[in-house]
Amino acid sequence: MTPALLAVAGAVLLWPDGRTAVRLRLSGVARGSARPGLRSVPLPVAAAVLAGGVAALLSTGLVALLAAGCAALAATGWRARREGAVADARLLTLTEVLAALAAELRAGRTLEEAVRGALADCSDRACADALLGAVRVPVPPRPGRTPPPTG
Predict the structure, then answer these.
(1) Which of 92, 117, 93, 95 is closest to 104 using CA atoms?
(2) pLDDT digits (tens, 9 = 90+) for 6-48
């Protein structure tokens, strides 16, 4: 009985509401697939259902409920830590690019030359776009491409 209740609880948690179901169907038609993939299931819910199912098969319902709750909390914490690490890496990249820009400006270069020099060391495209937007300099031409005509 416990596995059946756990399966029903997992189905209730994973069942999309009306708006989500319509959006998924429309996006599936636009992409050419009618069914959403496994990636559309949130990680904490998937971890909770998996841990709860295994615990329900091996132990009691209370242990299964506790295992599912702990797995959901652990997955949520893991995802938050991963997102925090990505944000920290972006912040570090932005700091390095701004330091390079400051060094170029202190060397007496014009703003456009300084931005080109700072972007030469930038490996993150989003960071480069943010820097270009912040200093409001036209995008420097990439090597091998001709710049667009001005005028």
Answers:
(1) 117
(2) 677 766 666 666 666 566 666 554 455 545 555 677 888 888 8
As a whole number of angstroms, the distance between CA 37 and CA 26 comes to: 14
CA atoms within 13 A on the CB side of 29: 5
Which pairs count as long-range contacts for 141-148, CB under 8 Å and 24+ apart, including other chains? none
Structure confidence by residue, pLDDT tens digits, 112-125: 888 888 888 777 88
Structure tokens at 47: 């971890």
Write b or e for each residue in 89-115: b if 16 or more Cβ atoms lie within 10 A of its Cβ, otherwise e.
eeeebbebbeebbeebbeeebeeeebb
CB 82 within 8 A of CB 112: no
Alpha carbon 92 to its chain's center? 17
Question: In which element (H, E) is residue 88 found?
Answer: helix 61-106
For the record, the structure tokens of 35 come out as 């069914």
Single pTM value for the model:
0.53
Q: Rounded to whole angstroms, how far apart are CA atoms 133 and 83? A: 24
